[in-house]
Amino acid sequence: MNEVSPVMTGYFSSPFPRRVSVAVPVGSVKVGGNNPVVVQSMTNTDTADIDATVAQVAALHKAGSEIVRITVDRDESAAAVPHIRERLERLGMDVPLVGDFHYIGHKLLSDHPACAEALAKYRINPGNVGFKDKKDKQFADIIELAIRYDKPVRIGVNWGSLDQELLTRLMDENQRSLRPMGADDVTREAIVQSALLSAELAEEIGLPRERIILSAKVSRVQDLIAVYTMLAQRSNHALHLGLTEAGMGTKGIVASSASMGILLQQGIGDTIRISLTPEPGGDRTREVQVSQELLQTMGFRQFVPIVAACPGCGRTTSTVFQELAQKIQADIRKNMPVWREKYPGVEDLKVAVMGCIVNGPGESKHADIGISLPGTGETPSAPVFIDGQKATTLRGPNIASDFERMVADYIEARYGRGKERLAAE
């Protein structure tokens, strides 16, 4: 049984058995095995800009990213990595950093040993690690450096930079077949083979399977499901899930959630990233929040208290319940970094903010603490339920602020010093 990190509490409630992969340590985080699915993200700053990169890594980690990938594309960025690592440690952030290497990763890791040491994992793409006769040599150089520094490697295939020699060979073989497959099927097979053949070569060089994570990024939902299903059937490597070029806004969220949700439900996937294109000037941490919400909604992890709120209808013309639900949810996310330390177990809290008497009292009883606000034509009073029992009825113009205080008091009593005081009594 692999040890589960205490910061990654959670459970797996799918009716499908969890695919048990080989566990891979990535810094202080374990990926795969019996460990919960890990959330990760990637910066979009110039890594050579130490201040900007430290700020964004800190923001992503504070939002809940347990692993953060940074681009290492030239000497200046490689030289900055150990300083970024040092600054993060001074901030008390033990977040594993993954170096994203393309084309010249072998040279950068060799020329900058402090970078090679500071990173928790190397990510390489077999489609562009090198070309023609240099490909295997440069791939081997990175694997040997990973062995030297005892670092895991993510072999990340991407269909936008797929090994063309491999794809051409498989296409030619398919044409000669008595039962040729479609071009999409051959491309999927090439993606899977690229990952597995690269992993096999890495193991032959001496990198143990306990130091290898595989990914196979595509941008179409059905392709992602097919490719990872094939990978899961043909290996026990730890798998990183991600729909590449998922897009902006709701499109990216829906596409990523639909594809990864199906795979996760079948027990496939050890770590995930929701790759959202930010709006201009948008918040990079949005992709972390979506990843957490996907895992929490499916019942695989518990990150923040759940706020249940009705969608509203003709009975709920007042916007009070909408504003209250939004404010409580925002306050929870804002306070979670502190609450996680101060109130162990607070992520299991369930709050209900309902807009009328139809389902309000029932939903509130199911929550740990819930309120049923008055709807159109109802008496201007709001019953509050705590642990399934009616605790009080709020009235007057300050219903929202009064309920906020009750939520704060409940958290303190259940998860904080109040809990210890009650136990002593």
The amount of helix comes to: 40-55%
- Please give the largest β-sheet: 8 strands, parallel, barrel
Number of strands: 15
Low-pLDDT segments: 1-10
- Which range does the strand content fall in? 15-25%
Rg, alpha carbons = 24 Å
Summed over residues and divided by their number, the pLDDT gives a mean of 89
Structural class: alpha/beta
Spatial shape = elongated
The oligomeric state of the chains shown is single chain
Summed up, the helix count is 14
| Terminal CA distance | 38 Å
Reading the helices and strands in chain order gives: EEEHEHEHHEHEHHEHEHEHEHEHEEEHH
Task: Trace the largest sheet across and list its strands.
Answer: 3-4-5-6-7-8-9-10
Description:
By secondary structure, this protein is an alpha/beta fold. It is 45% helix and 16% strand. The protein has 14 helices and 15 strands. It has helices at 50-63, 75-90, 105-111, 113-118, 135-149, 164-176, 183-205, 221-234, 249-265, 286-297, 320-342, 360-366, 399-415, 417-424, and strands at residues 24-26, 29-31, 38-42, 67-71, 97-101, 121-124, 153-158, 212-217, 238-241, 271-272, 306-309, 350-354, 369-372, 381-386, 389-395. The protein has an 8-stranded parallel barrel with strand order 3-4-5-6-7-8-9-10, surrounded by 5 helices. Strands 11-12-13-14-15 form a 5-stranded mixed sheet, with helices on both faces. Helix 3 (105-111) runs parallel beside helix 5 and helix 7 packs across helix 8. The longest helix is centred in the middle third of the chain and has 23 residues, at 183-205. The two termini are 38 Å apart. Mean pLDDT is 89; it is low at 1-10.
